[in-house]
Amino acid sequence: MGPDGDGKREARRDASGEPRPANWGIAFDLGIRLGISVILGLGAGLLLDSWLRTSPLFTLIGMALGIGAAMYTIWDVARDAMRR
Amino acid sequence: MAEEEGESLIHIALGGEELFAIGPFVVTNSMIGALLASLLLLAAAWYVTRQSTLIPSRLQGLLELPVEWVAGIVAGSTSRWRGYVALVIGFFLMILVANWLGLLPGVGTIGLRHGEELVPFVRPAAADLNFTLGLAIITFVVFVWWGIRINGPGGYLKELIGEPRYMAPLMFPIHLISELSRLVSLSMRLFGNVFAGEVLIATMLALTTATVFVLPLAFFVPSIFLGLELLFGAVQAIVFALLTMTYITMAIAEHDGGHEPEHDPRDDHGEPDVHPASSPA
Q1: Quick one: which of A21, A31, B37, B146 could link to B98 by a disulfide (CB 3.0–4.6 Å)?
Q2: How far is B92 from chain A (nearest CA, A)?
Q3: Structural domain boundaries of chain B?
Q4: ipTM for the assembly
Q5: How far is it, in rounded angstroms, from Cα B220 to Cα B133?
């Protein structure tokens, strides 16, 4: 069941040398999650600003956190891929 | 679709449309689509469990094929794959059948007239955000639950806070947004693809209906898009199922420090097994 000794390249591909199906899912997922992370951060900031009337403080913080979350998502996926 | 002069040939509704209500409970056409898909799957499961033989018939083989294929992929993910394989296969089959059901003649075109608008009896379930969000919430709860199960509630919270501790005010919201983005991404991708397919086919049918008297061969144009939707329906089902598997695998691997044992001792005790189609994650 396990990948044999020569490693990381083997783990990304199946026996026929094709990319593993789970990697297709990651590829489909990564792009859309980058955008959504920024939108979620920005949306949360806008909501907080409209409730607390502190515009544009939380909008800027939310956007920065959203961009940070997008970068973290890339790092998280890359770390998982390297681990495998 | 509407045929009267001056009336729109395209009817597109963003959400499911109400058919009837049982007290406060509103039944929409996308619920009927989901119910039909569930009934089809139940009938297939009943057939396979009642009529199954060791040497499968053609129909049994056909019904077992997608289950074995997905099970083979999941079996290569972690040693705990038996704990979530049923969920991944269930998602795959449900979304596949619900998507393909939407391509049958009559779905989205036969319904009740409410004034000038036609409300179809059946709408593809995944063309309603409520359905896809429901599936995504199940996935979200399951992968968080796996994270908590492996690492304990305190350990899971520590993962969210991150290291070093003084960075917690920055890292906690970042982790939270990143986790929530999975929920939104899963639901919006499936809904967006299926809904866009519905709009595309409705547009193509309207265009060809309008031009068929000039170009009789125009009737063949929607069939090209129906064929593409058949493919996209299957691709979206497998993407959703594989992402569910990937998220659970990542939750397990992260908390186990990425050193998952690949061998499940239960494999040695004669339990029914599947043959992984791929190497482990």
Answers
A1: B37
A2: 13
A3: 2-278
A4: 0.77
A5: 35
